Protein backbone atom coordinates (compact mmCIF):
# COMPACT_ATOMS: atom_id res chain seq x y z
CA UNK A 1 0.00 0.00 0.00
CA UNK A 2 1.36 3.32 -1.04
CA UNK A 3 -0.45 6.54 -0.33
CA UNK A 4 0.64 9.38 -2.55
CA UNK A 5 -0.99 12.78 -2.79
CA UNK A 6 -3.98 12.06 -0.57
CA UNK A 7 -6.27 9.17 -1.32
CA UNK A 8 -4.60 7.41 -4.20
CA UNK A 9 -3.46 3.88 -3.49
CA UNK A 10 -2.33 2.22 -6.71
CA UNK A 11 -0.38 -1.05 -6.17
CA UNK A 12 0.73 -4.02 -8.27
CA UNK A 13 1.17 -1.80 -11.33
CA UNK A 14 4.31 -0.20 -12.73
CA UNK A 15 5.07 3.10 -11.03
CA UNK A 16 4.73 5.06 -14.28
CA UNK A 17 1.23 3.70 -14.75
CA UNK A 18 0.18 3.83 -11.11
CA UNK A 19 1.01 7.52 -10.81
CA UNK A 20 -1.45 8.35 -13.58
CA UNK A 21 -4.25 7.32 -11.20
CA UNK A 22 -3.65 10.66 -9.48
CA UNK A 23 -5.84 13.46 -10.83
CA UNK A 24 -3.53 15.90 -12.62
CA UNK A 25 -0.80 13.41 -13.49
CA UNK A 26 -0.84 11.80 -16.91
CA UNK A 27 1.74 9.63 -18.57
CA UNK A 28 4.07 12.53 -19.43
CA UNK A 29 4.23 13.90 -15.90
CA UNK A 30 4.45 10.38 -14.45
CA UNK A 31 7.54 9.74 -16.58
CA UNK A 32 9.01 13.08 -15.50
CA UNK A 33 8.52 12.21 -11.85
CA UNK A 34 10.10 8.78 -12.25
CA UNK A 35 13.04 10.44 -13.99
CA UNK A 36 13.51 12.95 -11.19
CA UNK A 37 13.32 10.33 -8.45
CA UNK A 38 15.41 7.86 -10.46
CA UNK A 39 13.06 4.90 -10.64
CA UNK A 40 13.53 2.40 -13.49
CA UNK A 41 10.52 1.98 -15.77
CA UNK A 42 9.83 -1.67 -14.86
CA UNK A 43 9.69 -1.06 -11.10
CA UNK A 44 6.29 -1.81 -9.59
CA UNK A 45 4.68 0.07 -6.73
CA UNK A 46 4.89 -2.80 -4.25
CA UNK A 47 8.65 -3.08 -4.91
CA UNK A 48 9.27 0.55 -3.95
CA UNK A 49 11.26 1.25 -0.81
CA UNK A 50 9.72 3.61 1.74
CA UNK A 51 12.40 6.18 0.94
CA UNK A 52 11.38 6.13 -2.73
CA UNK A 53 7.73 6.65 -1.82
CA UNK A 54 8.67 9.59 0.38
CA UNK A 55 10.72 11.11 -2.42
CA UNK A 56 7.93 10.70 -4.94
CA UNK A 57 5.61 12.42 -2.49
CA UNK A 58 8.06 15.30 -2.07
CA UNK A 59 8.53 15.78 -5.81
CA UNK A 60 4.78 15.84 -6.37
CA UNK A 61 4.19 18.22 -3.48
CA UNK A 62 6.80 20.63 -4.74
CA UNK A 63 6.42 20.67 -8.49
CA UNK A 64 2.88 19.65 -9.36
CA UNK A 65 -0.64 20.73 -8.62
CA UNK A 66 -2.77 17.64 -8.18
CA UNK A 67 -6.12 16.39 -6.87
CA UNK A 68 -8.05 18.86 -4.71
CA UNK A 69 -5.83 21.84 -5.42
CA UNK A 70 -6.05 21.29 -9.16
CA UNK A 71 -9.82 20.78 -9.06
CA UNK A 72 -10.18 23.94 -7.02
CA UNK A 73 -8.05 25.91 -9.47
CA UNK A 74 -10.10 24.73 -12.45
CA UNK A 75 -13.35 25.48 -10.62
CA UNK A 76 -12.05 28.95 -9.74
CA UNK A 77 -11.14 29.66 -13.36
CA UNK A 78 -14.63 28.69 -14.48
CA UNK A 79 -16.20 30.71 -11.68
CA UNK A 80 -14.16 33.74 -12.73
CA UNK A 81 -15.57 33.49 -16.25
CA UNK A 82 -19.11 33.13 -14.94
CA UNK A 83 -18.82 36.14 -12.64
CA UNK A 84 -17.35 38.28 -15.41
CA UNK A 85 -20.43 37.92 -17.56
CA UNK A 86 -18.39 37.27 -20.67
CA UNK A 87 -19.51 34.95 -23.46
CA UNK A 88 -17.60 31.93 -22.20
CA UNK A 89 -19.05 32.47 -18.73
CA UNK A 90 -22.58 32.55 -20.10
CA UNK A 91 -22.01 29.27 -21.91
CA UNK A 92 -20.73 27.69 -18.71
CA UNK A 93 -23.79 28.96 -16.85
CA UNK A 94 -26.14 27.48 -19.42
CA UNK A 95 -24.26 24.19 -19.61
CA UNK A 96 -23.67 24.53 -23.33
CA UNK A 97 -20.41 24.02 -25.26
CA UNK A 98 -18.00 26.88 -24.67
CA UNK A 99 -15.75 26.77 -27.71
CA UNK A 100 -18.10 27.44 -30.57
CA UNK A 101 -19.22 23.90 -31.36
CA UNK A 102 -22.58 23.33 -33.00
CA UNK A 103 -25.58 22.74 -30.77
CA UNK A 104 -28.22 22.09 -33.40
CA UNK A 105 -27.31 18.44 -33.05
CA UNK A 106 -24.83 16.70 -30.81
CA UNK A 107 -23.22 18.56 -27.87
CA UNK A 108 -24.66 15.81 -25.65
CA UNK A 109 -21.62 15.76 -23.38
CA UNK A 110 -22.42 19.26 -22.18
CA UNK A 111 -26.19 19.15 -22.52
CA UNK A 112 -26.74 15.76 -20.90
CA UNK A 113 -29.18 13.13 -22.11
CA UNK A 114 -31.72 14.27 -24.71
CA UNK A 115 -35.07 15.44 -23.35
CA UNK A 116 -38.19 14.43 -25.21
CA UNK A 117 -40.19 17.32 -26.61
CA UNK A 118 -43.98 17.04 -26.48
CA UNK A 119 -45.63 17.22 -29.88
CA UNK A 120 -42.55 16.68 -31.98
CA UNK A 121 -42.44 14.04 -34.73
CA UNK A 122 -44.74 14.96 -37.64
CA UNK B 1 -4.22 29.94 -32.44
CA UNK B 2 -3.15 32.67 -30.06
CA UNK B 3 -1.89 36.01 -31.33
CA UNK B 4 1.86 36.56 -31.54
CA UNK B 5 3.22 38.39 -28.51
CA UNK B 6 5.50 40.66 -30.52
CA UNK B 7 2.50 42.34 -32.14
CA UNK B 8 1.11 43.43 -28.81
CA UNK B 9 -2.60 43.51 -28.02
CA UNK B 10 -4.93 44.69 -30.77
CA UNK B 11 -6.92 47.84 -30.07
CA UNK B 12 -8.63 50.22 -32.44
CA UNK B 13 -6.68 53.45 -32.04
CA UNK B 14 -9.62 55.77 -31.53
CA UNK B 15 -10.54 53.96 -28.30
CA UNK B 16 -7.26 55.03 -26.76
CA UNK B 17 -7.90 58.66 -27.63
CA UNK B 18 -11.51 58.55 -26.51
CA UNK B 19 -10.72 56.86 -23.22
CA UNK B 20 -8.06 59.48 -22.48
CA UNK B 21 -10.47 62.25 -23.36
CA UNK B 22 -13.19 60.96 -21.03
CA UNK B 23 -10.60 60.47 -18.28
CA UNK B 24 -9.52 64.07 -18.74
CA UNK B 25 -13.06 65.44 -18.82
CA UNK B 26 -13.74 63.73 -15.50
CA UNK B 27 -17.33 62.84 -16.30
CA UNK B 28 -17.96 59.15 -16.58
CA UNK B 29 -19.99 58.94 -19.72
CA UNK B 30 -20.54 55.87 -21.86
CA UNK B 31 -18.09 55.55 -24.74
CA UNK B 32 -20.04 54.09 -27.61
CA UNK B 33 -18.06 51.70 -29.75
CA UNK B 34 -18.53 49.26 -32.58
CA UNK B 35 -15.10 47.84 -32.00
CA UNK B 36 -15.98 44.48 -30.47
CA UNK B 37 -12.64 43.17 -31.69
CA UNK B 38 -10.53 45.43 -29.47
CA UNK B 39 -8.71 44.02 -26.48
CA UNK B 40 -9.55 45.52 -23.09
CA UNK B 41 -6.43 47.26 -21.80
CA UNK B 42 -5.50 48.21 -18.22
CA UNK B 43 -6.08 51.89 -18.96
CA UNK B 44 -9.76 51.19 -19.69
CA UNK B 45 -10.48 49.98 -16.15
CA UNK B 46 -13.25 51.95 -14.47
CA UNK B 47 -14.67 53.38 -17.70
CA UNK B 48 -18.02 52.39 -19.15
CA UNK B 49 -18.20 51.38 -22.79
CA UNK B 50 -21.32 50.95 -24.86
CA UNK B 51 -20.51 47.89 -26.89
CA UNK B 52 -22.64 47.45 -30.00
CA UNK B 53 -24.22 44.04 -30.42
CA UNK B 54 -25.79 44.68 -33.82
CA UNK B 55 -28.90 46.22 -32.29
CA UNK B 56 -27.99 48.40 -29.36
CA UNK B 57 -25.07 49.57 -27.26
CA UNK B 58 -24.83 47.43 -24.12
CA UNK B 59 -23.11 49.25 -21.27
CA UNK B 60 -20.04 47.40 -20.03
CA UNK B 61 -18.32 48.65 -16.90
CA UNK B 62 -14.72 47.52 -17.29
CA UNK B 63 -13.22 45.87 -14.23
CA UNK B 64 -9.73 44.61 -13.60
CA UNK B 65 -10.65 40.98 -14.30
CA UNK B 66 -11.72 41.84 -17.84
CA UNK B 67 -8.25 42.88 -18.96
CA UNK B 68 -7.13 40.76 -21.88
CA UNK B 69 -10.64 39.86 -22.99
CA UNK B 70 -12.26 41.51 -26.03
CA UNK B 71 -15.17 43.93 -25.85
CA UNK B 72 -17.35 41.64 -27.93
CA UNK B 73 -17.26 38.95 -25.27
CA UNK B 74 -19.38 41.14 -23.00
CA UNK B 75 -22.09 42.02 -25.47
CA UNK B 76 -23.95 38.92 -26.66
CA UNK B 77 -25.18 39.16 -30.25
CA UNK B 78 -27.83 36.48 -29.99
CA UNK B 79 -30.91 36.44 -27.84
CA UNK B 80 -32.57 33.10 -27.22
CA UNK B 81 -35.93 33.67 -25.56
CA UNK B 82 -36.67 29.94 -25.14
CA UNK B 83 -39.06 27.47 -26.67
CA UNK B 84 -42.19 28.03 -24.56
CA UNK B 85 -44.76 28.63 -27.31
CA UNK B 86 -43.79 25.84 -29.77
CA UNK B 87 -46.03 23.25 -28.18
CA UNK B 88 -49.26 24.44 -29.76
CA UNK B 89 -47.72 25.58 -33.02
CA UNK B 90 -46.64 22.07 -34.01
CA UNK B 91 -48.91 19.07 -34.33
CA UNK B 92 -51.42 21.10 -36.35
List low-pLDDT spans of chain B: none
Total E-strand runs of chain A: 0
Shape of chain B: globular
Percent helix range of chain A: 40-55%
Secondary-structure element string of chain A: HHHHHH
Distance between the first and last residues' Cα of chain A: 60 Å
Count of runs of 4 or more consecutive helical residues of chain A: 6
Number of helix segments of chain B? 2
Indicate the structural class of chain B.
alpha+beta
Globular, elongated, flat, extended or rod-shaped: what is the shape of chain A? elongated
| Amino-to-carboxy terminus distance of chain B | 48 Å
Structural class of chain A: mainly alpha
Radius of gyration of chain B: 18 Å
Q: Give the biggest beta sheet of chain A.
A: none
Name the average pLDDT of chain B. 86
The biggest beta sheet of chain B reads: 3 strands, mixed
- Average pLDDT of chain A works out at 87
The side-by-side strand order for the widest beta sheet of chain B comes to 1-2-3
Extract low-pLDDT stretches of chain A.
Answer: none
Amino acid sequence: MARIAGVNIPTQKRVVIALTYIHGIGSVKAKEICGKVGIPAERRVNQLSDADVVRIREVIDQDYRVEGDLRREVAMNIKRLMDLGCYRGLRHRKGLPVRGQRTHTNARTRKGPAKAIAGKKK
Amino acid sequence: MARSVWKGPFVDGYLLKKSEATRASGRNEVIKTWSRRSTILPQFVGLTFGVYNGQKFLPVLVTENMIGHKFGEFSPTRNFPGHAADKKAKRG
